[in-house]
Design a protein that fits this description.
The structure holds two protein chains of two kinds.
Chain A lengths: L3 E8 L12 H10 L2 E8 L1 H4 L3 H14 L5 E6 L7 H11 L4 E4 L1 H4 L6 H12 L3 E5 L22 H6 L5 E5 L7 H8 L4 E4 L8 H5 L8 E2 L9 H10 L4 H16 L1
Parallel strand pairs in A: 1-2, 2-3, 3-4, 4-5, 5-6, 6-7, 7-8
Chain B lengths: L2 E5 L9 H14 L4 E4 L11 H15 L6 E7 L4 H13 L5 E4 L9 H11 L3 E4 L15 H10 L5 E3 L6 H8 L5 E4 L9 H9 L4 E2 L9 H9 L5 H23 L4
Parallel strand pairs in B: 1-2, 2-3, 3-4, 4-5, 5-6, 6-7, 7-8
Helix pairs in contact in B: 1-2, 2-3, 3-4, 5-6, 6-7
The chains are: A alpha/beta, B alpha/beta.
């Protein structure tokens, strides 16, 4: 198998459970074992920490210290925090990040609010990829004191139309996005999806009957999900070699150039 | 050897049970799965009347008809209709090709109505599978939790039972059934959250864990990842992937005179 690019891994500690890959070195070993040549890494600290500047600094340090460049840090931005613009600047200028990761449902804003449009515009001005995590876990199994609904993506198709420079990757979205919303998002060249939460028999093969394969990226949601679950999805679907390569790495490589 | 405890005809493309079964087998082949257990029909209902569960079982029997060397069927029953469920058990398992029982969300499995079904199924050596979930937002009205399963298991300590989905919220589900040695957990049908298989092994032992997928709603792949991705000994992986299920099904196959 040629090298994989995994656009959906996360460092540090999941708040509710220790994970075998929550030490960066262990995660890197797992990724290397499965021929991952690049992984786009957010931080679990970005979900709930208010000192998000230090969370992003730690993320950048960890990515630098482990894996000899395999990890690309994607810092978290919370636009409900005062002076979030400085966090964005540091991600871009200080940490030299290629993109950012957003958690609107954990940070408490809706996509229809002006602050989200402002953040998208600021990220686009800096040429940053924006990853938006639609959910982190099944809402049925969440901690009773922290029940977080998936992000409502309803406003997104219209909003994206107005931001021509943005490159948006929706993480953990494919159990939520269906039907008309999927088609409206697919119609926009700037929106991409990844495989971590894609389900159903031969799920990748079925999905690319609906959307162009160039819109789909390989994502594992490791270490919260078993990495092997994502890997085996590539085996389950009948894909021609060029499609397999595109989803496994080439689509992501083109996006991050 | 991989045997899949938990497959359905729904969520699979095809206009007929035969077409859908062929699809299931095609994907199972790609993933190296030798045998699959299939239950419930083309169109589900959570509280089926007898004519409904009979029809769904007929669809599964039809789906199995060309695949007895690759697939097993479980009879879908509704404990609200005990007399009819027992008759269906006789029709599908004692006198038919099926080897197990599927109980879903029509009635909580802690209810006394389950007792005669469990006893009759145990007499036949049929595998007994009960759907369970712990949903933080609240279960469906009559949807069982693993605690219901624990209550049932306590009344039938010598009957092997399977706790479907490990209760979904597996950190609670495993604890709920842990004291009941006759209960195994099904790994199917919830997100491939890392750690489930390791915790089940630590708390229950490898002999009480069974791989299943919940295909076609889920993929074989995502659910196999729970076993192939787990940090467990190879001996445990073999038990989970197929040997435990084979051990549970062999007695009824022997009664039926079927050899593998």
């Amino acid at each position: 198998m040629t090298g994989l690019i995994d656009v959906n891994v996360t460092l540090s500690r999941w708040p509710f459970r220790r994970l075998r890959g929550d030490e960066t070195s262990a995660l890197v070993n797992k990724l290397r074992e499965h021929h991952v040549v690049q992984a786009w890494a957010g931080t679990f600290d970005g979900l709930l920490h208010k000192d998000i500047s230090s969370a992003n600094a730690r993320l950048a340090e960890e990515c630098h210290a482990h894996g000899r460049g395999i990890l690309l840090p994607f810092g978290s931005i919370n636009p409900t925090l005062p002076d979030w613009e400085e966090d964005l600047r540091r991600c871009h200028e200080v940490h030299k990040m290629r993109g950012i990761r957003l958690h609107p449902n954990y940070h408490g804003y809706r996509l229809g609010e002006p602050i989200f449009a402002k953040l998208l515009a600021a990220a686009a001005d800096r040429g940053l990829i924006v990853q938006l995590a639609v959910l982190m876990e099944d809402k049925r199994t969440q901690h009773p004191l922290l029940q977080i609904a998936p992000v409502d993506l309803g406003p997104l198709p219209e909003l994206i139309k107005q931001k021509p420079g943005i490159r948006l990757v929706l993480l953990n979205s494919l159990q939520v996005i269906r039907g008309d919303l999927l088609l409206r998002l697919v119609a926009n060249e700037q929106v991409f999806f990844e495989t971590a939460c894609l389900e159903g028999l031969g799920g990748i093969g079925k999905l690319i009957e609906q959307i162009y394969a160039r819109k789909l990226l390989f994502g594992s949601h490791a270490p919260l999900f078993y990495f092997e679950s994502a890997l085996l999805k590539l085996k389950e679907s009948v894909l021609d070699e060029s499609t397999r390569k595109a989803i496994s790495a080439e689509n992501a490589r083109r996006l991050v150039l | 050897m991989i045997w899949d405890l938990h497959c359905h005809l729904s969520g699979v493309s095809g206009r007929t049970p035969d077409e859908r079964m062929a699809q299931l087998i095609e994907f199972a082949n790609r993933m190296g799965i030798e045998r699959i257990c299939v239950y419930m029909g083309m169109h589900w209902s959570s509280d089926p009347k007898p004519e409904d569960f009979r029809q769904q079982n007929d669809e599964v029997i039809q789906a199995l008809s060309h695949w007895h060397h690759r697939a097993f069927g479980f009879a879908y029953l509704n404990p609200k209709y005990v007399k009819e469920s027992l008759a269906e058990l006789d029709r599908c398992v004692r006198d038919g090709p099926m080897v197990g029982v599927k109980l879903w969300t029509a009635h909580r499995c802690s209810a006394s109505e389950l007792d005669s079904i469990v006893e009759r199924a145990a007499d036949m050596k049929a595998v007994i599978f009960q759907h369970t979930w712990f949903k933080v937002e609240g279960n469906l009205g009559n949807e069982s939790t693993p605690l219901d399963m624990a209550a049932l298991a306590g009344r039938h300590p010598n009957v092997p039972l399977i706790c479907g989905h490990t209760g979904g919220d597996w950190e609670k589900g495993i604890r709920a059934i842990r004291p009941h040695k006759n209960v195994s957990v099904d790994l199917a049908g919830f997100d491939p959250t890392a750690g489930v298989t390791e915790m089940a092994l630590r708390e229950l032992g490898a002999e009480r864990i069974i791989y299943g997928s919940d295909a076609g709603g889920r993929s074989f792949a995502s659910q196999l990842g729970k076993v192939f991705g787990a940090d467990i000994p190879e001996s445990a992986r073999k038990l989970i992937l197929g040997e435990n299920l084979r051990r549970m099904i062999l007695p009824i196959l022997k009664l039926k005179g079927v050899s593998l």
